[in-house]
Amino acid sequence: MPRVEGQRPSAAQRQQRPVRRGAAASQPSQSMRVQAAQPQQGQPSQQIPVVQNMRGNDPSAYSRAKYQRTKEGAQKASPTNASTYQAARYLGNNNYAPKQKADFFTRGSLIAVAVVVVLAIVGIFAFNNWMGSKPVEVTLNGDQVTISGAERSVGGLLDNNVVSVTPGNYVAVDGSTIRQGEGTRCTAKVNGNDTDDMGMHLNGGDKIEISNGTDITEPYTDSEPQTLPHKTELKGVGAVHLYSNNAQDGEQVTRTGKESGITATVTTKEPVDNIVQYYNVNSNGDKVIALTFDDGPWDKQTDEILDILEQNDAKATFFTVGQCISGHEKELQRAASMGCEIGTHTWDHAEGSGEGVSLIKMSTDERKQEVQKGLEAIKNATGQEASTIFRCPGGNFDTSVATDLEGIVTAEIGWNVDTTDWKKPGADVIAQRIQSAGPGNIILMHDGGGDRSQTIEGLRQALPKLKEQGYSFITVQELLEKYPYQEGQTN
Fold it and tell me: Rounded distance, CA 406 to CA 162, Å?
């Protein structure tokens, strides 16, 4: 009777199966008890022997027991597939048998892959070597040149005489040569960057600069550093003489060469000089003027000038003579309350060795005392710090005076318009000179030192007219702060 896939074999079919060898195959062991498997709910009854206990060495019984355990596991996992598994087991279906994985790489294929990898590496190396040595164009010291092979490095350019330079020397502490040619080989830049790598590879389009080498100094020892004083320098032209106030002293040492034994004085820290910049204020067209008055305070005259300033919404800068302040404190206090600036014109207008006109003729100590005493007198009268902007008697200011007054004042002020009112040319002349001032100008007048009635009258005439033209009147300090000096400014 033919077997049907998926059906349980009949008793006749089971009897037709080949009998296994050995008695154990035809007769089950007496120690093995077999009972019919209980059907699961909803499943048809199956007369499949289930081994409950197995004793002895019956291979057939062991095989059936193993099958039963596998079937029960399948029923637990998926009762629906249990019968399919059972049928496949008895009908010889091998779909459930484990399959061996095929070897993907054989020994021959591995060798082939290895050969390909080696050839690729060799090819890449050869290509890179060719690319690194092929001719390329570069710019060498401003000229277009073609280089190739061993020439394509900084050292290669020198070795192959593409460019010729002189190496530096090995020198003593005083700069004298100990051994020639033992300094650096050259000074080189590639694409604007300094390099001392002689093996640096050069590519097409590189910009190379190669010049002579530099000296190398022998080892040395230094003494303790000594102060190297800074200097004062006057620069430019103009009414304002402004201190830079960033001066610094330098340092120097005595240096002794360990190989040569030579000694030399060497600056290890450069001094920063004090620059006094001369310039005229550039107000960019703004109509501002700084009125200044020297030699006061003075009886009645200072107050009359303050009245005119007040009437024209004007401020001014007063450069006072220190010994004139006593008895005129109220005038200075009034000026300060109006927003006017009060600076010193020295203590006694440089009397004594200065001959009443020049700090240049005085000693360092005398110069400092003249200014410091003048500043103290202002503070004592007003209760406020005096302005550090000052004016030298007669405008006599030079490098020696600037050096001695460093740290005491911040600026010395000249003038753009001199009314020469001290010569008493007449009120109308003084008024005309005041009115001749332009934007950013500083005007020189006097409120003390003698009769200044012409000055007062000339000021009374000129200020209203300048005000009508749109001018305003500010202090020198305000002028400098609002329109500061610009580096490279032309006068």
Answer: 57
